[in-house]
């Protein structure tokens, strides 16, 4: 493979949150072996400061996203920012409107780049 000759831009860190669960990372893994309930995915929320995680099995992205989001937000309140890759279920009109009404900022990262996890 031939080098492109272009200099790579330096990585830019995300600012560290001031308190626990003020900024979270969200990810969804799919294509796992089905469990006894038929779930083939896992939804993950991680506090960017403490690295505490909430994990939940999910059958599909949309249902898992809504149900698990509710349980995390119920325990820790709404975050100020959510860092997520450009996953479509988290980019729908429902989420855009909800975040706008609640004052939560959704920060999009690039998929498969763990350096944005904080």
TrEMBL record:
Residues 11-118 form the Integrase catalytic domain. GO terms for biological process: DNA integration. GO terms for molecular function: nucleic acid binding. It comes from the Eukaryota. Transmembrane segments: none annotated. This is DNA/RNA polymerase. It comes from Phytophthora palmivora.
């Amino acid at each position: 493979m031939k080098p492109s000759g272009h200099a790579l831009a330096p990585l830019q860190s995300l600012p560290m949150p001031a308190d626990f669960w003020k900024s979270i990372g969200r990810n969804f893994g799919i294509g796992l072996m089905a469990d006894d309930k038929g779930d083939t995915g896992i939804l993950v929320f991680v506090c960017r400061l403490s690295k505490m995680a909430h994990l939940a099995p999910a059958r599909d992205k949309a249902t898992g996203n809504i149900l698990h989001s509710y349980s995390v937000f119920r325990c820790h309140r709404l975050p100020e920012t959510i860092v997520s890759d450009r996953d479509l279920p988290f980019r729908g009109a429902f989420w855009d409107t909800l975040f706008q009404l609640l004052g939560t900022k959704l920060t999009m990262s690039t998929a498969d780049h763990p350096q944005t996890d904080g």
